[in-house]
Amino acid sequence: MHITKTHIFVAMIKQINSYLNKPFPSIDSTRSRIIMPISFGFFVFAFLFIFKPFGISTEDDALVITLGYGAITMIISFINNTISYYLFSTLKIDNNFTLRHNLYISIWFLFTIGLANWAYANYILESDGLNASLFVYILYTVAVGMFPMTIGAYFTERKLNKKNKETAETINTKIDNDIIEIKDTNFEFISELTDDRLIINSRDLICIKSDGNYCEFYFNNNSEIKRKILRFTMKMASEVVKNNTKIIRCHRSFFTNAEKVSKVSGTARNLSLHIDNIEFTIPVSRTNEQLVTKAIHNIHNK
Fold it and tell me: pLDDT tens, 79-89?
């Protein structure tokens, strides 16, 4: 009996881990980073003003008080969104963002909003009816904030997962068609600090991957895939390939040759490009989805 319970517990933990490792979209657009805090702040204000919980019903200035809670929620959420965006971008976690990361962020949001609301109630309002410990205010924040956060995350994941899978299927249908011949060009990539260089025809270039101040170039050479690393920036690469419509900037860290894409997959986080005999997939940022889709469509026969 004990062994059975242990197995059930282990299986549950594995299921939870599997669920938390599901891809989830990070907030990577300025519009989303602004709209989300406003929506969250408005929900908090509306909920507190309508239901007046946590002693608010005993206060004379309920409208002003609840507006204050809503404004604090909005400001703290905006600050947290901005910090988390730049933090995850710096650590390059945004390409591998999961529900687990979203959970960590949500916990941090609730803690900091609870802390700010506690300070607001105890040091600005100075109301005996609203005076409570920090722990209690964090519980208040969790009670009010978990609902919109959970519902928002659930529907966002479902909506984007469905959308990206449908987009991937549409592109894959196009990839099955023949490739239109496009004039090839020669590229010359010269290292910043040395005379090291790579001269390559556009038909052989597979992709360019950024790694700090260096770029990894993947290309075909005598039926083999080769890799060359140069001290080279993505801005410099953009200048070299800008006149070739096959080479597209699909992500801030990647250029890819649209001719080489063999398959596209979609998750809630993003679209990913698959290239034969390349061990990694190439992410497509949401801001570049239309560009990538158009480029692949343009090089395949109807």
Answer: 998 888 888 77
Distances (CA, A) of 47 to 121, 144, 189, 294: 17, 8, 58, 44
Length of the chain equals 302
CB atoms under 10 Å from CB of 173, counted, come to: 10
Look up the pTM and report it. Answer: 0.74
Cβ proximity of 99 and 157 under 8 Å: yes
Assign residue 277 a region (left: φ > 0; alpha: ψ between -120 and 50; beta: otherwise).
left
Question: What tokens does 273 get?
Answer: 């490009």
List the domains of the chain with CATH numbers: 2-163 (no CATH), 176-299 (2.40.50.1020)
Give the pLDDT mean for 271-283: 94
User: How many whole angstroms separate alpha carbon 165 and alpha carbon 168?
Assistant: 5
